[in-house]
Amino acid sequence: MKLSDVMHRNVEVISGDTTVREAAQKMCNLDVGSLPVCANDQIAGLVTDRDLVVRSLARGDDPGKARVVDVMTKDVEWCFEDDSIDDASRKMCERQIQRLIVLNRDKKLVGIVSLADLVRAKGNAPAVTHVVEEIKSPTKSSAAGTSAQHVGH
Asked: Domain total for the chain?
């Protein structure tokens, strides 16, 4: 099964110049936990609800003044839409992340896939249990979402 079969399409994006408050409001309105951050039609990063809390609110930033670019995860993991869900599961396990940006072969954003999407697609398979256990285990140093493979490289 390919990621294109399970990913969310028509993903809303946000600009790095958006305030933390506006990002939180947009996430609330869309009922999502993350938004890709785009600049000049390219993925610049990913901002999550956790980024807003841990990297901004916890340090005392003014949510009406702090910008998404200052709190987002800059080096995001991604897969191609024609990659298998097993490939995505492996990448999520290795990096201990719960969401992947999905690109087409022209490296344009076409969707996002979450751990929950993969669990629904795979059902009760033992591999699903392994993926969840790996992602939810204590954080590894690679859990920040960085790798040698990034958009635009």
From this structure: 1
